[in-house]
Design goal:
The structure is a homodimer.
Chain A: H1 3-6, H2 31-54, H3 61-68, H4 72-78, H5 82-103, H6 111-125, H7 131-144, H8 146-170, H9 180-200, H10 208-227
Helix pairs in contact in A: 2-3, 2-7, 5-6, 5-7, 5-8, 6-9, 6-10, 7-8, 8-9, 9-10
Chain A binds a DNA duplex (30 and 30 nucleotides) through α2 and α4.
Chain lengths: ~240, ~240
DNA sequence: CGCGCTAATGCCACTGAGTGGCATAACTGT
DNA sequence: ACAGTTATGCCACTCAGTGGCATTAGCGCG
């Protein structure tokens, strides 16, 4: 068998990839599950690596699958699309965010602030070795790859809709058709993307706390974006 | 030849589809151009019709092309993808918006307001017969079709980046890396999508001025989305 | 320790989107 | 009417994504 080199791949795959979902000690998961996680992580890491060097469209799925010794059929049981595998790191963050929303209690402060803190908390959870590196590769890739960007945007949009459902379920707003909660979520997403953009263009390999900084900056810039004026004679 | 029924299709195709781009009197365009526009419009209309009745994935491109008597090769010279043809109506609006941005002068009022007015002006330009019906079909379709939604989101994102470039070129902001202009654009897009959502779910066939109303509502809800608070004992 | 049970995997064939190349037809201006 | 340009049609091809079915591998139980 080719089992010898099957798992000899860039990073360590024994850590969790479940991000912040069930905070289970996956070291004690059934063997079958751990294998699945290893394979999933292997696919993600090799995808990021090979897409980065040869371009997203420069690599066929067959090639990727060959590199990880997985059948294409199995690939599609783990990822929805070719784009999906390369967007996994960011998706982990948003899943953690949704999870945070489930447990947080309102404290009388603005909803927008609560959402921002949930996102910070989600970021804190991304403790896997090399998570920031993966996100970085993923984002830099997405910038050059329209279809990846599109899938990423849709995922965020979908997530914000799910989050909206959670908000309505947990804290009952007086008016069920109030636009503001939805807008608050969209603003959060917009600011986050802004921050992510900046972070992605930092030199070298920025850290997770760099991202937190960029997020803080974007969040504080948010109110000013509605009031910013340009004086007519500026031209 | 099948030329007899070639253009016998749902709507009138002699009107412009150039939305708000060059405000040319396309009644006096060269014959070749008018034919192209007719074909383009025929593809859009039949696509919307047939996607609506049989579902986006229930229709192959070959079928669509057959219905309009166009080769698949030609289809792809006019549209970037299968999704693209069904998203054309909304794209016209954003192109008109970009065009508005090119000519508008700052008047000392907030940038966000200026952007909103540019979008209103763009909406005013969408005077084609049945534009609202097309947007409606397009949006209702996008709701059920993830890939369409994704392409739509990406197009908006791309447009807002282009707009950002225009802003920086025409009105020189003091700080070139100020996040606020970018955020202002993203908020505009978010509010617009919010409005479009509401509009799409109105009963019957809402009008263009209904959309303007929904947009106004979304824009005015924008500031409140940052300050909205939930009281802790609301649960 | 071995033996079914279940669920994931691999394999194969197939659909359909999207592309490149090249010959042909259709409009253009003179 | 004629030459020049430009879009179109056709053909063959790649590759993402899917369904069905046989095979394998981890799991639990005696």
């Amino acid at each position: 068998m080719a089992l010898a080199r099957k798992w000899r791949l860039p990073l360590g795959y024994d850590q969790a990839m479940t991000a912040g979902l069930p905070p289970t000690d996956n070291g004690r998961l059934p063997l079958r599950e751990r294998k699945k996680l290893r394979m999933r992580q292997a696919l993600i890491d090799t995808a990021l690596e090979v897409f980065t060097t040869r371009g997203f469209s420069g690599v066929t799925l067959d090639e990727l699958c060959d590199a990880v010794d997985v059948s294409k059929r199995t690939f599609f049981r783990n990822f929805a699309s070719k784009e999906d595998v390369a967007m996994a790191p960011t998706q982990d963050l948003w899943r953690a965010f949704l999870d945070e929303l489930e447990t947080r209690e309102p404290d009388g402060r603005p909803l927008a602030e609560m959402l921002q803190q949930a996102l910070f908390a989600a970021l804190e959870r991304m403790t896997e070795e090399g998570w920031n590196r993966r996100v970085l590769l993923s984002r830099r890739l997405a910038e050059k790859t329209p279809s990846m960007d599109a899938h990423g945007l849709r995922f965020c949009h979908e997530t914000s809709r799910t989050a909206l459902g959670t908000l309505h379920r947990r804290l009952h707003f007086p008016a069920p058709d109030d636009l503001r909660p939805q807008l608050a979520l969209d603003l959060l997403v917009a600011a986050f993307h802004c921050a992510l953009d900046r972070w992605t263009h930092r030199p070298d390999t920025p850290t997770r706390s760099d991202l937190a900084t960029d997020m803080r900056n974007a969040f504080t810039a948010l109110p000013g974006s509605l009031t910013l004026t340009v004086n007519p004679q500026a031209r």
